[in-house]
Amino acid sequence: MKSDKQLVVGAISSHGHERGHVGVLDQLAEVGSIHVCAATDLVDVEELAAESARVVGKYTNVAALLARPDLDAVIVCARPDHAPAILEQVVTAGLPVLYDKPASTHSSHLRQVADLAQQKGITAGAMLQWRYHPMALNLKRALADGALGDVMTIEAKLLNGLLLYRDTSTYLFDPKTAGHGILSWLGCHCLDLVLYLMQERVVEVMAMVGNLNPENKVNPRATVGRDSNPRATVGRETAVEDTGFLLLKFESGRLGTFQAGYHLRGDKSVYDFYIGMRGTEGYAILPLVEPQKQPEQSAEASGTYTLYSEARHWATGRVRQERYMIPETPAYGGIMAEELYRDFFAAAQSGAPAPAPIEDSVHMLEIIEAAKESSATGRAVGIGGP
User: Fold this and answer.
1) Would you give the DSSP letter of residue 331?
2) How far apart are CA 38 and CA 208, in angstroms?
3) What span, in angstroms and rounded, lies between the C-alpha atoms of 66 and 61?
4) Beta strand 7-13 with 31-38: parallel, antiparallel or unpaired?
5) What pTM value is reported for the model?
6) Span 7-122: which CATH code?
């Protein structure tokens, strides 16, 4: 990749969720032209191309797209069961790749792609834009400065609207196509931030997961919203988890908790996204999205970030509190996604690791798999080691 020209980017899709990611490319001055590819017949290539006026090529065959000699990088938004094979094709072609989460139904399949990318020196990583939230960035800097001292614990949760607001007949609720449920689909954003902030691997997991939503399958003839009657849905337990509680042990012996679930009344746009961290010199509170926000508020409106520190070099600012309103953009994932894409392209130019490296995605799936095993067996499950 050369930095003195606009980028030529390929965009591969295997299902309908990811069209908005082409819209992110449309917002970036670094991107000159886009070539889209419908990897399966689940995608309308014309609809995919309509996401940006910069689309100059349309393909229905991945190999044909990757044969282009002018591609600088590729974004992949594929269903979890499709993703590893597509990613392997891209990496084999020697192209940097940025992919939508969770990118696999099982860690072993994504591990193969990660190993191949490492062997070939290819930049590969996930579209996990919450690493770019100001709260996360501020806490990251504070941790590097020793503001919390020795971190002892971290707690995290990501809750979303009840399943009565979702159509559970889609691929997201089939373990063959999605792999897992709330833990890997939405909870992954929060779990990724835990790994990003802690900067160490999880070595042991104890967990309980379950299916607690009483009504899961949306009646397509029913109007579901804030004032809807939950009895307008058809009761059916999903085949993937809708609830998960995890206890995490890190390499250093530090402990963490993680909770995810479709648990909130309102609609599917209501979230409770929170991280708290405690150390020997202070603590931090990150309410990234609060459930009690008014419906007319932007999803980018956060709660109050709080950092308390008794570290000597922070004595003049022992308590720091800030609120953020993330600038809105037309792009899927907003300004945070735009910043992640820019850093990915810069990393790809230099051969550096991606902002959210593929190895972290593999480990996140390992944690989720350990949690499912722990819940099924009633015992702690180790990750890695001999």
Assistant:
1) S
2) 38
3) 9
4) parallel
5) 0.91
6) 3.40.50.720
* Tokens found for residue 223: 């109007």
CB 305 within 8 A of CB 321: yes
Mean pLDDT of 329-334: 84
Cα separation, 209 vs 238, whole angstroms: 13
Cβ neighbours of residue 315 under 8 Å, at least 6 residues apart?
none
Which residue intervals of the chain are DSSP H helices?
19-26, 45-49, 62-66, 83-92, 107-120, 134-144, 175-178, 182-185, 187-198, 334-350, 358-377
Indicate the helix (H) or strand (E) that contains 234: strand 233-234
Pairing of strands 271-279, 255-264: unpaired
As a whole number of Å, the CA-based R_g of the chain is 21
- What gap in Å lies between CA 252 and CA 267, rounded to an integer? 39
CATH of domain 139-330+364-382: 3.30.360.10
Residues spanned by CATH 3.40.50.720 within the chain?
7-122
Q: How many CB atoms lie within 10 A of CB 8?
A: 19
114 or 229, which is more confident? 114
> Which own/partner pairs from 230-235 qualify as long-range (CB within 8 Å, at least 24 positions apart)?
230/162, 230/164, 233/164
Please enumerate in sequence order all residues whose Cβ is within 8 A of that of 122, keeping only pairs 6 or more positions apart, or say none. Answer: 91, 94, 95, 96, 97, 116
- Provide CATH 3.30.360.10 ranges for the chain: 139-330+364-382
- What residues does 218 pair with on adjacent strands? 233
**CA 194 and chain centroid, separation:** 12
- 296 vs 274, higher pLDDT: 274
Q: Which of 55, 59, 62 is nearest to 87 (CA)?
A: 62
Phi-psi region of 90 (alpha: psi -120 to 50; beta: other; left: phi over 0): alpha
pLDDT of residue 220: 44
Q: DSSP code of 165?
A: G
| Cα(145)–Cα(123) distance, integer angstroms | 29
- Inter-residue contact 20 to 51 (CB < 8 Å): yes
Residue 336 CA to residue 289 CA, distance in Å, equals 14
